[in-house]
Amino acid sequence: VKLPEKTLGAVLYETGKPLVVEELTLPPLLPGQVLVEMAFSGVCHSQLLEADGKRGPDRFLPHVMGHEASGKVLAVGSEVTKVTPGDSVVLTWIASRGAATPGPAYTNQKGDKVNAGPVATFLQHAVVAENRCVRISPEVPLDVAALWGCALPTGCGTIFRKLDAQAGQSFVLLGAGGVGLASLLAAGERECTPRIVVDISEEKLQFARKLGATHTLLFGDQLKAEVLSLTGGRGADLVVEATGNRLAMEAAVPLARDRGGRVVLAGNTPAGEKISIDPFALIYGRVLTGTAGGESLLDEDIPRFEKLLGNPLFPMEKLLGERYRLEEINTAMERLRAGSLGRTLIAW
Ligand SMILES: [Zn+2]
Predict the structure, then answer these.
(1) In the structure, how many helices (H) and strands (E) does the chain have?
(2) 285 Cα–ligand 1 center, Å
(3) How confident is the model at residue 269 (pLDDT cuts 50, 70, 90)?
(4) The pTM is what?
(5) pLDDT given for residue 2 in this prediction
(6) How many angstroms is it from 152 CA to the middle of ligand 1?
(7) CA of 93 to the centre of ligand 1 (A)
(8) Which residues contact residue 251 at a Cβ distance below 8 angstroms, ignoring those fewer than 6 apart?
(9) CA-CA distance, 36 to 73, in Å (whole number)?
């Protein structure tokens, strides 16, 4: 098999500016690295924050981005044992088993270095660390599998692992984006009830109903009263915030019931942003916590996602959103910013 020497990647040269899609030269594979041909890459809010420079000063410019994808292994460096050429894989930012290697450096047409983290997926071919790859069965549809790198593990891990949600518990979700809707699916699989979804977009709320929301509410001043009335006056057992919006985070806490209602912050705010909470919300026994990646162990969780394929209680394919070519990456990001439904994919 002849391996590619060049590929097409979307490069962030300057924060606040569009990405530049251009030809890049692939670096040689080092021990512990894997060369993957991308099938689908998810586009997530983290990349919007990154591209907008809202994660603080960006020391890695210029660089490629993207942190969830599916694809095929083309080649492996020495010491790689987890995957072999021809395998279908999920690429993920969440470290799992295998070698941890630093990010590779690509070279642009001018001969300048373009940085990458241990995983980057806005590339037709990418060199990634072994510990960011998880093998999947060749029968798994690769569009759905792309969601297993970030949206599904973060959203589902919040419900399955962090909260260990139980049947009959009341559940409120703030933010019907990719991660939030994945947590809604997981809450449905655990038979939480009611499953209340809150957003600022009526369109997103409609979409959430298709994914199992039993009630939907527009974000506003009446939110706490509405949640109380839908939970028999008690407040919710479980509250998941997946907006990354300060006001939503602040509103999430009092929606939980006192004496044991739990609130998980899963959204990412711009760097430096602070939230304000009434201490009595905690004094009366609410538990406020957060999660990065839903505490996922992907070597265990991805086989579970495979088993859940086709389960009517867990229709994860309904999470798939709009599809774009890599050349349309800036449109894809604009659409996400404007509130597109489901998880946006780059497709090859
Ligand atoms: Zn993500």
Answers:
(1) 10, 18
(2) 31
(3) very high
(4) 0.93
(5) 86
(6) 9
(7) 8
(8) 174, 219, 223, 224
(9) 4
